[in-house]
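assembly run, all chains below
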Amino acid sequence: MFGLSFDQLLDIALTAFETIAILLAVVIAAALLIWVERRLLGVWQDRYGPNRVGPFGILQVAADMIKIFFKEDWIPPFADKTVFVIAPAIIMFTTIMAFAVVPFTETIGVVDLNIGLLFILAMSSLGVYSVILAGWSSDNKYALLGGMRTAAQMISYEVFMGLSLLGVVLLAGSFDMRVIVESQAGMWNIIPQFPAFVIFLIAGCAEIHRAPFDLPEAEQELTAGYHTEYSGMKFGMFFVGEYLGIVLISCLITVLFFGGWLGPILPGFVWFALKAGFFVCFFVLLRAATVRPRYDQLMSFGWKILLPIALVNVAITGAVVVAMA
Amino acid sequence: MLNAAQTAWNATSSVLRTIGMTFMHTFRKRDTILYPEQQPYLPPRYRGRIVLTRDPDGAERCVACNLCSVACPVDCISVVKTEDETGRWYPETFRINFSRCIYCGYCEEACPTYAIQLTPDFEMGEFDRQNMVYEKSDLLISGVGKRPGYNFYRVAGMAVGGKDKGEAVNEAEPVDVKTLLP
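ok done. output:
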């Protein structure tokens, strides 16, 4: 068929299967996060959270999904229809695309790009369009304000996110995520690259606009920010897109700083899931514990504190790598 | 420079401390009462379902004076008066529309005979609105409610049901206003 040998066809089929499996696992994990987050927030607010539907309330996800699918999918008459519809798809698309280069174990992973890390940064940059276009096409003051904040926030924090990762790249000598994990066999990057880890954690949080950096949606000031006018499954896509973002950033922290699948006794996938799960919970804890900074505080914190630290970190790491070589 | 370092340290430590304190809530007792399985404590004076009580002798307390109906801000009480052969007033019908009732308790305050009382019970949900209309037979209970031992006609100076003027508890003999002699 198409001049391909049987082995090549088998290879294609296996890759396709693997891709679909990873896609499903990631989306299901993101959907489950709706429940996980509500339960954990409950735990940290001395409540129970949703515990009625199914065992421990885990079927709450299904109930929410059914509800959101049957909601009226309303497009405001004053909105720019095409853009309005495309915007929520972009965030899902870019976030899911970024998972393509994440190595889950030694063998599982869609593709090993030698520019893996750059690919992820590129995809997260493209994700900005989703929020800005949503804010613009809604033709609503709150949405536009949210969109503008997002533009400023995500573009600035991308700078530190990229710079903080340079240290990791210097140590591994490659942008390939798999090589980065393998380079941590002796020592996880968290120890030599601790400042980079902190900056990446903060910038990652801002990049997926999670609390405390959820200024684009800031309920108290902007009703719902950029997705004020969205309803039904279009809102659901922003919602799931945000959770996908949490999963992605947790996976990235695991891969870049905590040795990915590396770990004793347990199989690689379990280690990966444990580490990523820990950071997912940590992001929820951050939401439960921290307060949202003011917009100018967010900007000055980024440019005046994170940027110098990131630059110094890159300089020192570079010097050490050169000296050791 | 030292000042800036101090500020940075304060900010960082306060954020970390907040995160730690929030995390410690994992081990606290839950505040939620798991309602249908676990019943909440309702104080005795809770303003819930409205009942009509009886006096200690087992007779109805309500004298159909309509004060509750007048006091009701949402007009959910309707009373029709009747009399027995001794001249004592009774409600012929006593109807409360609980789909309008706001459980303010004004009826209880207005009642001169402590007949109408609010009780600590709120589980009155119905699928059919019509079922929220309670008739006298639904409202009347066989107990004395919150006022044990109180009987309006024993302390009131009204001649009713074989009890004449001046025969009530703590009541003086009626004064003959037609004579000047003490």
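Residues 54 and 60 of chain B are 5 Å apart (CA to CA).

The interface with chain A takes residues 8, 15, 18-19, 21-23, 25-26, 28-32, 34 of chain B (CB under 8 Å).

not gonna interpret more than that til we talk
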